[in-house]
Amino acid sequence: MSKFNDLLKRSISGLIFVGLVTASIFLGRWYFGALFLFVTLYACYEFKKMLVHLNIRLCTIPLLISAGLFFISGFLHTEYNILWGYVLTALSIFAIMIIELYRKRVHAIHNVGLAIFALYYIAAPFTMLLYFPSIRTNWGPEWRPLTVFMPFIVVWLNDTFAYLCGVTMGRHKLFERLSPKKSWEGAIGGGLIAIAGGTTVAWFFAPDNIINAAIISLLVVVFGNLGDLFESMIKRTIEIKDSGHFMPGHGGILDRMDSLLFAIPAVFVYLIVVYLVFV
């Protein structure tokens, strides 16, 4: 009964999360921006809380201000072609270093370095998402929901079917040192289904972009798995099970977004190359 309740709780919270993300994407940039500004800030807060286990205490408010400015700068640039937000973001990073002078913490250099790391590990990928439609329209403000939705649908399919394939067929460990439950069978099975599913969704909405959809799906699967393993490495180093308790049955926001944190930059670079370099 306990396992059933846990599965039910996990399923409900997962469906709510998927529904919120999907709705925000298809409602438009403002809705997506509002939701992912919150996601960015909360994920940075979770990262800060995780480091407490190592007796490393980041300065919360300056970190969240910098992360928020980073994301808002991307929103202003893509929506209104305003670039000065990035200047404020750069200044806020210097502010983190200056504030650390007066905190008198033992791990001062760790505090500064890991705060800056959080901005590029968490805030930068979510900010890149805002640019996906803009890249395809040569920096125009048009919002293309499918372009933003693609990484999410592929990650969700990959996670779901990697788990199912791993449970039913898993024999060979994928990366036992970091994630002992993951198997090669699960990774390959989930990846193939995710690539097929992402390509099918793209074909339904935009049949002229099948090859791009297949390549993007492949990038999301490969780099998504690396992102998941990277967060597992962080948690193993800190010796904790989950990044937080935001989503019942799932853990924290970082636990749900870890794959995207590596997949989004990979897709971002691909879109830059395809639509801006080879045009």
Structure, briefly:
This protein is an all-alpha fold.
Please, could you describe this protein's structure?
- The chain is mainly α.
- It has helices spanning 2-27, 29-51, 60-80, 84-101, 108-136, 145-169, 184-205, 210-238, 253-277, and strands at residues 173-175, 179-183.
- Strands 1-2 form a two-stranded antiparallel sheet.
- A hairpin with a 3-residue loop joins strand 1 and strand 2 (179-183).
- Helix 2 (29-51) runs antiparallel to helix 5, helix 4 (84-101) runs antiparallel to helix 5 (108-136) and helix 5 crosses helix 9 (253-277).
- The longest helix is centred in the middle third of the chain and has 29 residues, at 108-136.
Q: Keyphrases for this structure?
A:
single chain, 279 residues, two-stranded antiparallel sheet, 2 strands, 78% helix
Beta-strand segment tally? 2
- Pick out the low-confidence regions: none
Mean model confidence by pLDDT:
88
**Quaternary state of the chains:** single chain
The Rg value, from CA coordinates, equals: 19 Å
Series of secondary-structure elements, N-terminal to C-terminal: HHHHHHEEHHH
What structural category characterises the helix and strand content? mainly alpha
Gross geometry: globular
Helix count equals: 9
The first-to-last residue Cα distance is: 58 Å
| Strand portion | under 5%
Strand order across the biggest sheet? 1-2
- State the share of residues found in helices, binned by percent: over 70%
**Main sheet record:** 2 strands, antiparallel
